[in-house]
## 1
Amino acid sequence: MRRVSFAFIPRGELRTFRRRVLSWFAKRKRDLPWRRTKDPYCIWVSEIMLQQTRVAAVIPYYKRFTRIFPDVRALAHARIDRVVANWAGLGYYSRARNLHRAAKEIVARHDGHFPREYDEALRLPGIGRYTAAAVTSIAYGEPRAVLDGNVARVLVRIGAQRGDPRAPTAWRKLEGAAEDLLARNSPGDWNQAMMELGATVCTPKSPRCGECPVARWCRARKLGIAEELPSARKKRAPVAMTLAAAVFLDPRGRTLLVRKTASDGALFSRMWQFPAIEATGADPKAALTTHLREYFRVTTNGHTTALATARHTVTFRNIRLEPFLFHVARLPHPAGSLIAPLNRLGRVPVSNATRKIAEAAIAHLLAAKVARAVIPSEARNLLSFSDRKNSPVTQ
Ligand code: SF4
């Protein structure tokens, strides 16, 4: 007999509980592009994009990505820079790299088909328990329950469980509860229904208990503590830091980008970015010029302008970006660096911080009416990075 660990719903009522959830989902589910297909590739792409990202933000990216890379083979055979460039703006770029690596493995080991079995899916890069369960249950009907933040919140509230649900023991219990509740005859719909319930009704703030199909089983609602749950996680204290960045500009409107690896301790690992250094003292410009002299052998005694500062947040780091514009007759071009037109950075994978810095530089150039002299004429309205036309990039 299967273990039932979710004791707040009497065993005799489990069937009713499931039926209510499924019929609520059938009536109330949102019409989302990835719900119109059973193609495992599309479901997989959507699940990866939805990690840490809101549905509304994902929709245009999903549509474009699946148009440009319509199947696993198209993705597997694409150049990684092109894949990452089409991810630009979604953040968490390791997702795009893992997607690409996994596509290659699927072509090499699974004849281009996303694996049907949960355990096989788990072996792919970038696929954890949640994604493996979501894709295999939705696309193939594999009876595996998903547990993400939305589902966990619903379960925690139904059971009125206090404590940090992300703590390993609590999370394992919730995984057991999710498995016990799973409607095994329609696992794909069930998983989507539970996630939808958390996303649209049992929301973090102001849960709409009056519309909830499982309200009668919910202990948190009965106790009046729904909004207090889940208990807040202990957050790492934010760390403030300043990053001084160099925007080199040559007479052709081109700039220099570098790419660091994660082992450098770079904040934006493997993304193209402006040369930068964390400035710990009172003079970010001095720290930057020393860095440029030591690592790029560039002496910046020419025309230098402090650009508008910007704020950027990476996990617990609150970063103050302090960019400086350096007009140079000739750009340095160390090994592994990239020379690209400042107004064409949408063509290469750059971090959002790099975009903010580029925007500050371009805004300054336009305001100073320097743009006419140094930036190609078609780029007057260039405070957008959507431009994907060909232009010279030198690596
Ligand atoms: Fe969430 Fe309210 Fe439904 Fe309980 S009754 S699961 S708190 S929406």
## 2
Amino acid sequence: EVILSVRDLTASIDGNPILKGVNFEVKAGEVHAIMGLNGSGKSTFSKALAGHPAYEVTGGTVIYKGQNLLEMEPEERALNGIFLAFQYPMEIPGVSNLDFLRVAYNSRRKHEGLEEIDTFDFEDLVQEKLDIVKMDASFLERSLNEGFSGGEKKRNEILQMALLEPSLAILDETDSGLDIDALKIVANGVNQLATPENGTILITHYQRLLDYIEPDYVHVMAAGRIIRTGGKELALELESRGYDWLLEEEAVEV
Ligand code: ADP
Ligand code: MG
Ligand code: MG
């Protein structure tokens, strides 16, 4: 079953073409890693999929579970099961983490025609999910992301993901300067939450992350295109040889 199908996607920022024809497909049960040098367009790709208003899609098609994703508002994309960590506000003073999670969870339920979850049932459910990220319950009473450490923000992202059970999770780790603990949290979360029914896109320039996650496919993005796709061995080769040889083989100008 195909979850996401991207064909010849082009996108611009402020009129500058960044994505220059991305082709990409995710089937149920697959974990895809997208790697590449800084500035290759990885975050632009994830933001275009999220529907970020600054990223103008200028061509191509994106089909998500049989629907035209490009016609969906960013909120609709989330309600239909696309999870993008960065779409959530960084800090919301005065809103507890628990309240925020409940609102997000209930919007999803409402969209599926279900009633709001009982407050106590929700707390039980969250408690269960806290174990996945090894977080203490006191964490839930804190203001959303206010004063969270990098590792706590990561844990919270994975907690959101565990609750929302997305059909397609897109994790862009590139700019977050993850330490080894945060890497392991992300890796554990991905490993536990990847199921035969959903798909995961892991954007990273850290080969290290792939020491903890076994992706089904590794893609290399350069100059706004996916220039090569392979298995885990491709990531290992990039680690030992760098990117230059590949850019040369594919005649990519960067
Ligand atoms: P990556 O995530 O692979 O490092 P990005 O998608 O962030 O790459 O960036 C791709 C290109 O788009 C870079 O040349 C970057 O400078 C440019 N770019 C990214 N965001 C913006 C922006 N908001 N305005 C203008 N140019 C941008
Ligand atoms: Mg799997
Ligand atoms: Mg990036």
